[in-house]
Amino acid sequence: MNLTRSNSLLPVPSGTLQISELPKPFKSFDEAPIKLSLIIPTYKEAANVQTIVDQLSSLLDEALPQAYELIIVDDNSPDDTWKIAQELMPKYPQLQVMRRVNERGLSSAVIRGWQASRGEVLGVIDADLQHPPELLLKLWGEIQRGGDMAVASRHVDGGGVSDWSIVRRFLSRGAQILGLIILPGVIGRVSDPMSGYFMVRRKCIIGQRLNPLGYKILIEVLARGRVPWIGEVGYVFQERQEGESKVTSKQYVDYLRHLIRLRFSLGPVGRLLRFGLVGFSGVFIDMIVLYLLSDPTTLGLPLTRSKIIASELAIINNFLWNDFWTFGDIARRQPGKRQRLKRLLKFNMICFGGLILNVLLLNLLFNIFGINRYVANLIAIAAVTLWNFWLNMKLSWRVTDLQK
Ligand code: GDD
Ligand code: MN
Q1: Within this chain, do residues 220 and 261 fall inside the same structural domain, yes or no?
Q2: Mean pLDDT value of segment 51-75
Q3: 353 and 399 housed in the same domain
């Protein structure tokens, strides 16, 4: 053991919440990769740290001698949890402690811990003993069998909750169903997406920009990581003996915001939603400019001229949002003013084409099929939005025309 390490706190990583590769070759013994880094996030857990560290250490000293580390990440708890943990370090050589002062929150605490770690497998467990420590070995077993991730679940064989009221069970399941509706491809991958007790191979999340909100770090990792094989192990969520839960109604709101944020950022559906929202913003620009230019109480310019200017401004507005946001990932790989101008011109042409198509469709649906004019208009707008989206993706932000 090297003496400087045994008592000093781990420096807090800063910048984006992104896990990097382990240094290869490593420069000192402290950088040598190990098998497992287990993060224990704490906030006001003074009464629990000693017990959890002791139980985890005896389990892991046997299963993975010298090949694991425990990292307590404490958010400057007023009960001095970090200090108590630091005092445990000489007795538990695999223990490390991080004290965060400038940042707060469970999910970011876990990621900061992983960033400072050197494990090939990254894990997390609550400090309050609600997650049974023994289960760790079963989770590790799933990883040994080839799993990319192992999740402790309350909803598979051997799993459950202790003494939860009907209301609490209902809220918990309701949150899960809501998640399934908004993000089926993520929430549907595990039986207990709310679990805060799991392990994942570092390689599955290296380089992914994580952006979690609230408590549900597992959802963030599932959504943004590459995790082909997931093993699940049942456990009973224990009652808390010491300290108190930090869950408030804010966590429910954060969960919902987290789901919506992921929905907008993932995959082709997310892109289409972004495109749709941008299109919606354009309608407002168009309306406001039309009012400012053509209304008798404002400038009172001729209608057609006003409408052309209003549409053009809306198109430029939409282009900028799409270039930075909807197709931002692609645009960043086609840098330079000239390239951007080219994209703007193509976007503009496609939008004009869309306008003509809109008028034709509206006429077709209304005059030939006899559909109510407003319903017909809505259908036409939806169809043209899809058409615009597809053409712009293929032509303006050409996915095939990328600089690596
Ligand atoms: N560093 C840090 N910062 N730790 C925090 C914070 C924070 O802001 N908030 C909570 N923690 C720590 C707690 O000290 C505890 O170790 C763990 O995170 C879980 O917090 P609890 O307040 O005990 O949460 P819970 O019991 O309601 O919820 C747990 O169970 C859920 C259901 O499986 C958590 O593990 C959730 O992640 C899990 O989803
Ligand atoms: Mn708890």
Answers
A1: yes
A2: 97
A3: yes
Residues 284 and 336 in one domain: yes
pLDDT at 6: 58
Question: Average of pLDDT values for 358-385?
Answer: 92
Pocket flag, ligand 1, residue 194 (CB < 6 Å): yes
Same domain, 244 and 131: yes
82 lines ligand 1 (CB under 6 A): no
126 lines ligand 1 (CB under 6 A): yes
Query: Contact 343/315 with Cβ under 8 angstroms?
Result: no
The pTM of this model reads 0.88
Measured by CA distance, the residue closest to atom 33 of ligand 1 is: 195
For residues 215 and 239, membership in a common domain is answered with: yes
Residue with tokens 């781990």: 10
248 and 303 belong to one structural domain: no
What is the DSSP code string of 205-251?
Answer: TBT-EE---TT-HHHHHHHHS----EEEEE-EEPPP-SS-----HHH
The residue whose CA has the least distance to atom 6 of ligand 1 is: 106
**Smallest CA separation from ligand 1 atom 38, residue:** 196
Domain that holds residue 168: 5-265
- Would the CB of 41 count as within 6 Å of ligand 1? yes
218, 151 contact by CB (below 8 A): yes
**How many whole angstroms separate alpha carbon 350 and alpha carbon 373?**
24
What CATH number is attached to the domain comprising 222? Answer: 3.90.550.10
For 314-361, what is each residue's pLDDT tens digit?
999 999 999 999 999 999 998 899 999 999 999 999 999 999 999 999
Residue 1 has pLDDT above 60, yes or no: no
Closest-approaching ligand to the CA atom of 48: 1
Please determine, for residue 29, whether its predicted confidence score (pLDDT) is greater than 90.
no
- Among all ligands shown, which has an atom nearest to the Cα of 246? 1
φ, ψ for residue 107, nearest 5 deg: -65, -45
pLDDT beyond 90 at 148: yes
- Kindly state whether residues 261 and 271 are assigned to the same domain: no
Mutational test site, ligand 1, from 198, 246, 252, max ligand atoms within 8 Å of CB: 246
- Please say if the pLDDT value at position 3 is more than 90: no
Separation of CA 246 and ligand 1 centre (Å): 7
Please give the number of the atom of ligand 1 that sits closest to the Cα of 104. Answer: 8
Q: Does any ligand 1 atom lie closer than 6 A to the CB of residue 73? A: yes
Span 174-198, pLDDT tens digits: 999 999 999 999 999 999 999 999 9
User: In the chain, how many domains are there?
Assistant: 2
CA-CA-CA-CA torsion sign (198, 202, 208, 212): positive
Indicate if 293 and 315 belong to the same structural domain. Answer: yes
